[in-house]
Design brief:
The two termini are about 40 Å apart. Helix 2 packs across helix 6, helix 3 packs across helix 6 and helix 6 packs across helix 7. By secondary structure, this protein is mainly alpha-helical. The protein is built from 7 helices and 3 strands. It has a 3-stranded antiparallel sheet with strand order 1-3-2. About 65% of the residues lie in helices and about 10% in strands. The chain is globular and about 60 Å long.
Amino acid sequence: MDVQALEETMTTTPADLDPCNNLALRRASRYLGATYDKALASVGLRGTQFSILQKLSVHGEMTITSLADVIAMDRTTLASNLKPLAREGLVTVEPSATDRRARLVTLTPEGLSRLKAAMPLWRAVQSRFEKSFGTDEAARLRSSLEAVLQTGFDPWAE
């Protein structure tokens, strides 16, 4: 099929796709994520790893399922993200004593130390973003993004 014939069969035009929420969110996420990753690289962490360590420092020991819910990630992806953290001794992942099907994730002393080393780097990026984007705008952005999680989709349902 030639390009003209293909264009004639399309039900949407490229202009119809311009306000794509998914693309806008992913572009911003990649941009900001790369900024945090770059800042945290000197302590050997990526943004996602920092978030995992931070949530564990606040909540303590958690099941993989609970941690996945807190950071809005599917369990399989979270398990993949936990492997390098466990290899480096920053977290432990062990079966629960009360439910052998559940696996518990715990922040280790080394993980807490790495998190503490990363905090000033994270704060610097956070501050720089808020200075550039605006403190009130950043707060509204976080609130709007949190509201996205309440839209009723169930992306990881099995």
